[in-house]
Design brief:
heterodimer; A: 411 residues; alpha/beta; Rossmann fold; 2 domains; five-stranded parallel β-sheet; 15 strands; 19% strand; globular; disordered N terminus; B: 295 residues; mainly alpha; ABC transporter involved in vitamin B12 uptake, BtuC; two-stranded antiparallel ribbon; two-stranded antiparallel sheet; 11 helices
Amino acid sequence: MNPVLPRRTLLAGAAAAPLVGFGRRARAQANTLRIGVLNDQSGPYRDTGGTTSAICCRQAVEEFGSQGFNVEVVTADHQNKPDLGASIAREWYDRNDVDMILDVPTSSVALAVAAVAKEKNKVHLNTGAATADLTGKACAPCIVHWSYDTYMLAKSTGGATVKAGGTSWYFITADYAFGQQLQRDTTAFVQAAGGKVLGASPYPFPGTTDFSSFLLQAQSSGAKVLGLCNAGGDTVNSIKQAVEFGLTKNGTMSIAAMLMFITDVNALGLDIAQGLSLTESFYWDLNDGTRAFTNRVKSKTPNNWPNMIHAACYAGTKHFLKAVAGLGIADAKKSGKAIVDKMKSMQTDDDCFGKNTIREDGLLLCPAYLFQVKKPSESKGKWDYYTTKVTSPAAEAWKPLNESGCAFVKA
Amino acid sequence: MFMILGYPAPLMFGQLLLGLINGAFYALLSLGLAIIFGMLRIINFAHGALFMLGAFVAWGMLQYGGIGYWPALIVAPIIVGAFGVFLERTMIRHLYKLDHLYGLLLTFGLAEIIEGLARNQFGSSGMPYAIPAALQGAVNLGFMFLPIYRGWVVIAAVVVCLVTWIAIERTSLGATLRAATENAPLVQAFGVNVPRLITLTYGAGVALAAFGGVLAAPIYSVNPNMGSNFIIVVFAVVVIGGMGSILGSIVTGFGLGVVEGLTKVFYPQASATVIFVVMVIVLLARPAGLFGKAT
């Protein structure tokens, strides 16, 4: 016998591996609701989503208790590959009776999964991806986008930076859906506020670790602001190297990290990160509710405290479960749209984001916060990193509905 | 202002220098790979993971033992090199008689395991590691602002590459080593313990990777994926330089760093691809690589 396995078989086996084990059990349990947490569990976005997202989702399930139906949470790693994400989504919805897919960072994967959800009329609650297209061009009646998007980041961080005198920009951009869109949205705000963009270096993602060449170009462009349209490890590396190359020395250039999480600040250390401005919709030390939530989960994820994605996994799951309970499990399992309609009809209420609403196009409208990273001397302990600078109320933080470009809303 | 190809000259000089700095990492890593392949005929896919391990050992020494950068530069390669010796003694040595592919698969699996364990333990966003106090700051070269640490990286890499090259090409130990790869039974007949020689060679190659890891720690974020970002490019460098050619890997490492740096100015989108374009052209024109001997 030929002992060599064909490559295709190996790949198919690897792709299916996360699904093994619950196929048989999944059938014929009409009384069980299934949530699938699909995200990056081994790559650059592992800490911003990853297992902490699943922990926060399970926390919501635990707190919800039993209300006449069982809830199961399953997880898988999409490895930031759109094809793999879509095939897991298909498998989950079709064969494993999963009712809602949660998280899904990486915009390219999110758009692929959203297309599958739309086709199957199943719920996709996105908390991890940035693309505003999830509630725009790619919107669907069964999709909810919770926590942040490119428009909100561009408006909050971009707008505030121009106001503070940062009128000329140079972008370093991850060259894929997310980076391009973030750059486009930020450019619009910069120009609307009277600023100008002097240049950009779109770099290949993933696989770029050295940004010094782009930093040097940014420096020689004479721009006042370095706009980083990237995320995770790339942002960390860019900032580390920008400081190393003296870009920020004597206030010559300021850095606007267009998407940055508390986990990235933790990776940089306050020595380097101090003074940076960034936007999140959640911070653990914002109010009594956020502190109470963090206290409940931090023992389960001691090295990775929740950021806005994790908080949205908790809050979104909670709201989803309330909607299912309100609708009745039998009706809920039939239609994703029915669940999302119910979610939109009820006000959200949770420890992380407070009381908010989900708009017609599926966008959660919550306040956005512009934070500044503390100096090492101001920080009282681990994870004490942010000072709140500007709070944008829910009504102003997001793209207006008439600009969203969501087809089914117009109809 | 003086222009080169439509770009201001200072910018171009700066880019050339940056290219050399990145090339220093490529050279250091591909050197280790070339030694291991040249002597053991093992395609060491675990090289990136061991590079990462070097950075993590340095970070751990500082975090848990308060031991700083300079001791780590010596100690971390020794610790990781010893780990390499362990891998060679327990696993890799069983594959010498088999096809190269088996070595590749084994080391690839090892890399996945090492990186997976590191991710599980430390997460993926990385750990901060500061530039040592003596090398902080920067000098103004007129055409660019050069961080002192980056200058140090180039010097350290050039010195280590030269020493390694001399040790292999110009000393009696190196001669024995080269003879052992040509004809192991004959060298053994002269009373040389060839298996031990091979074990130590693997350890030394791995130590080079770890040394690169410690050098990289203050510049790049110390995270479990840092090696896998480098490894594919470094393999391309080894192939272009000629598999197993020590000089080839050093020269090609620096050269490709410069090519990549210039691409980042003219067409940044292609900066990840340009090395592979060069690889295709070189392989078509000289299948054994620039410095390789056709076998």
